[in-house]
Each structure stands twice: as C-alpha cells, then as structure tokens.
C-alpha cells in the first residue's frame, strides 16, 4: 500500500461539494479563518465475522458512505480547539502537549484524542502542531457502524497531515487500532483497517498478523440493507465487549494448557490453532473435549492455570473486568472457531460464484446471527425481532453487525425485492414505535462498498 498522500483529492473552490462548502462556512463562522484541508473517514458494515478480529481471525467488512468529516486549520499555538456541527456535542480544547483521555467517560472528544495521541507517540513529536478542527458526522452513533473508530482514524490522518508526516495505509490502520485502546476498548483492528483500506465497489477480506486486505466481489443480484434497531450501544461505556475479549483470552489459556503449549504467551484463539497446526473443524472438536458448557468461576480458572486470583486480575484481565466472577469459555470459543470458518466459506462462495451463491451466502449470515445470539450472547430482543422481520419480508440472510447489544442488522436482499422489502420493514418495525418513527429516515438504507479515508485540499 502506498504512502497516504496518494489519497489526496484536489477540489476546485468553485465546485466544492455542498457538504464541504457548508462545513467551510461553519468553520469560518466558528474560528474566524478558513480551513486548510479536510479529512474524511468512512464507517463500515461487517458482512460476516463478528467478534473474531481480536481473536486473530479474518473478517469481511465493507466501507459505507456514512462518514466522519473534519475541517482543519493548523495553528501556531500549542492548542487543539475542537467543535462539532451537531449541538449535541460540546466544544473542547486542550494543549497538544498534555493529552489526557478519560476512560470512564467515553465522550466524543476522547476518541479524537486517541487518534491525536497515537500519531504523536508514533513519531515522538516533541512540538506537535496545534489545530482548529470542526467535525461533521453522518454515521449514527452507537449503531454498530463504527462511528467511534472512524473518528479515531479521521483524527489520526488529520494529525499526520497537520504535522507533515507520511505513513502507509497499513501503518495508519495499525496505529489507530492501538490508539483506540487508550479509551479502554480491547478491539481487534477490523474497523480501523477497513476505514483505511476500503476501495469503492468491493468488500474486503481483512486478515491480521500481518495486516492485509483482499478484494471480495459481492453478487450483483443482491443488495445489502442496513437497519438500525434504534437501541444504542457504546462499547466503551459498558463492560459487555471487554468481558467477551477476556472470555476468549481465558479460553485460549485453558485450551493451550490442556495441549501442553506455553499458555502464558498465548493471547488469541487463533494462536492455539496455529501452534497445533489443525483445522477450524478440529479446533471445534478440541473445544468440546477440553471446555465444559457451564460457566467457569474465577476460582476454577485459577486452579486450572495454577495461578492466584491476584495474578489473574493483574496479568490477564482488563481494568473493567476485574470484578467479573464467572466467564463462559466453551460458548465463546465455539462461536469464534465456527464464525472464522463461515468467513472463509463466504469468501469462497463469492470467488466461485455458483448459481445459488446468494442463497448460500444468506444461509451463512443466518448461521452467524444464531451463533451471535446463542453462543456469544451479544444480541438483544430488538435485534432478534428486526432480523425476523427482515427474513419475513424477503431477505435471504440477516444478522446483527458490529459489537451487538443494540445497533444495526445487515440483510442480504435480492435486488428485485428491494423496494417492497424497504416498505414492509419500515411499516413493521419503525412505524409501530414513536421513538423509532422519529429516526426512520436515517435508520434503514441499502448500501454498497465505498472508498476508504481521504484528504481533501482546495486546488
């Protein structure tokens, strides 16, 4: 992947797109001067491969047109002034030399600070550039479409450009993945990778260690429709997400120890498969043999690993999972290994394009949702109902997308059924509830693969 400045788009001021023109006018009104450049980073929808990136397994997302857009003016002061076009988000300012990220309050500006700090630390910037920044976002917040990661990625690219530095897309994705963890979320890298590596017209198989992206051409006879359950879920605001990460980490340790591996060095479920040199199907059999379906208490885990409770908390568990008393290891490992296999099968079907490809892909999506609901327990009643409605009105496959516990579903719908599908889902899910009805216009839409992050500069 080339240096990121290959992705700079020059725009003539006379035909500056409406949204950028409006952002420029608001920026001038706010700061009294014009922005020098703009950065855009897209949200994403994950078609299949949920909660497995942090376990080391490949995922299959695509970028969407909804995005984070930031207008930027580098300044000579050592201050970042941050404002938002939405009145829901308060202005914020801080010294660029004293970045403090509050993990207990995942407010919007803290995600900005993650990207800022990540680039500063990567280059060891002793005198980083101050900035005035105005942000505009079209990704529904806490919807499972990666608004927070898009903000981190956008800010990382803003900081890179403002300080005159260059990096490859892969390096940027890896830095932004690490820097988002400043806010306390133990994410795996899918969101940041697709935000930078996405290309228009194709989904991507994203693989890790090393990070790489492969085009996946989707069937032409189907559309992917995103539907927002209107239940918000902020990963950093609860421990749901990090508990699952820890359950997978603990399953990794117990599986490794049972097979005589150096369990202390093993962090991800993929590491176990790789060390043993077996297939995903064989790993599912090993899970059946080694782990029991009943929840594991912290005492039992300590006994299995031969460590104290203090060692468990200080060496393995994350900060916001210290007080969790039981963990489900069997169910989480079963989901991860089966979901990893579904991702590879999804890509294989797309590549081979059999006559019944749409039906086969839809079935994999349905299996994924069932596993997310029953084995990973990251769904919720509203998501399950929305999936059922989508299947009832013509989707061949439907599943939650993103972290879950709220947010969105993604459904695969034959294009000849798309219009009636949208009408029926609107009527059945959104128009039966006053709160959902108010959000209806931005909650249900067909999407196609979009392009990755860009820098816009006026010509």
Automatic annotation (TrEMBL):
E.C. code: 2.7.1.157
GHMP kinase N-terminal domain: residues covered: 110-197
Which keywords does this Swiss-Prot/TrEMBL entry list?
Answer: ATP-binding, Kinase, Nucleotide-binding, Transferase
Keyword Nucleotide-binding belongs to the record: yes
Reaction equation(s) it catalyzes = N-acetyl-alpha-D-galactosamine + ATP = N-acetyl-alpha-D-galactosamine 1-phosphate + ADP + H(+)
Show which residues constitute the signal peptide: none
| Keyword Kinase on entry | yes
Q: Which Gene Ontology BP annotations are present?
A: galactose metabolic process
Instruction: Give GO terms: molecular function aspect only.
Output: ATP binding; galactokinase activity; N-acetylgalactosamine kinase activity
Give residue ranges for domain GHMP kinase C-terminal.
Answer: 356-430
> Which Gene3D superfamilies does this one have?
1.20.1440.340, 3.30.230.10, 3.30.70.3170
What Pfam families would the database entry show?
GalKase_gal_bdg, GHMP_kinases_C, GHMP_kinases_N
Task: Give the highest taxon in the source lineage.
Answer: Eukaryota
What Gene Ontology cellular component terms go with this record?
cytosol
Which parts of the sequence belong to the Galactokinase N-terminal domain?
Answer: 26-74
Q: Which PANTHER family match?
A: GALACTOKINASE-RELATED (PTHR10457:SF7), MEVALONATE KINASE/GALACTOKINASE (PTHR10457)
| Family of this protein | Belongs to the GHMP kinase family. GalK subfamily.
Quaternary form? Monomer.
What name has this protein been given in UniProt? N-acetylgalactosamine kinase
């Amino acid at each position: 992947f080339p240096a990121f400045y290959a992705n700079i788009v020059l725009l003539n001021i006379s035909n500056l797109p409406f949204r950028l023109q409006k952002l420029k006018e608001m920026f001038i009104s706010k700061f009294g001067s014009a922005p020098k450049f703009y950065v855009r980073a897209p949200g994403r929808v994950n078609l299949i491969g949920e909660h497995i990136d942090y376990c080391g397994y490949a995922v299959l997302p695509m970028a969407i047109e909804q995005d984070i857009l930031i207008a930027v003016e580098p300044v000579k002061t050592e201050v970042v002034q941050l404002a938002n076009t939405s009145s829901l988000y308060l202005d914020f300012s801080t010294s660029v030399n004293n970045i403090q990220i509050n993990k207990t309050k995942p407010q919007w500006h803290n995600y900005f600070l993650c990207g800022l700090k990540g680039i500063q630390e990567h280059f060891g910037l002793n005198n980083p550039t101050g900035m005035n920044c105005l942000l505009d976002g079209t990704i529904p917040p806490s919807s499972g479409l990666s608004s927070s990661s898009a903000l981190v990625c956008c800010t990382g690219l803003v900081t890179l450009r403002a300080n005159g530095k260059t990096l490859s897309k892969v390096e940027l994705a890896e830095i932004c993945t690490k820097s988002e963890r400043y806010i306390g979320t133990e994410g795996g890298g899918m969101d940041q990778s697709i935000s930078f590596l996405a290309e228009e017209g194709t989904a991507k198989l994203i693989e890790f260690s090393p990070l790489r992206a492969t085009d996946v051409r989707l069937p032409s006879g189907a559309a992917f429709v995103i539907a927002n359950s209107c239940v918000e879920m902020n990963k950093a605001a609860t421990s749901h997400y990090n508990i699952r990460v820890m359950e997978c980490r603990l399953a990794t340790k117990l599986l490794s120890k049972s097979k005589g591996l150096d369990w202390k060095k093993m962090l991800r479920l993929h590491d176990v498969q790789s060390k043993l040199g077996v297939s995903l199907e064989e790993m599912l059999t090993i899970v059946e043999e080694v782990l029991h379906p009943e929840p594991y208490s912290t005492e039992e885990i300590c006994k299995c690993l031969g460590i104290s409770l203090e060692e468990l908390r200080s060496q393995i568990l994350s900060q916001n999972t210290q007080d969790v008393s039981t963990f489900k290891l069997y169910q989480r490992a079963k989901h991860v290994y089966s979901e990893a296999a579904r991702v590879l099968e999804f890509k294989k079907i797309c590549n081979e394009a059999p006559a019944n490809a749409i039906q086969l892909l839809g079935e994999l999506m349905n299996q994924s949702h069932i596993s997310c609901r029953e084995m990973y327990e990251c769904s919720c009643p509203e998501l399950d109902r929305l999936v059922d409605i989508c299947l009832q009105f013509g989707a061949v496959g439907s599943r939650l997308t993103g972290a879950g516990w709220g947010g969105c579903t993604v459904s695969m719908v034959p294009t000849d059924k798309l219009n009636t599908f949208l009408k029926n889902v609107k009527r059945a899910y959104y128009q039966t509830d006053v709160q959902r009805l108010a959000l209806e216009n931005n909650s249900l839409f067909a999407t196609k693969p979009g392009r990755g992050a860009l820098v816009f500069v006026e010509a």
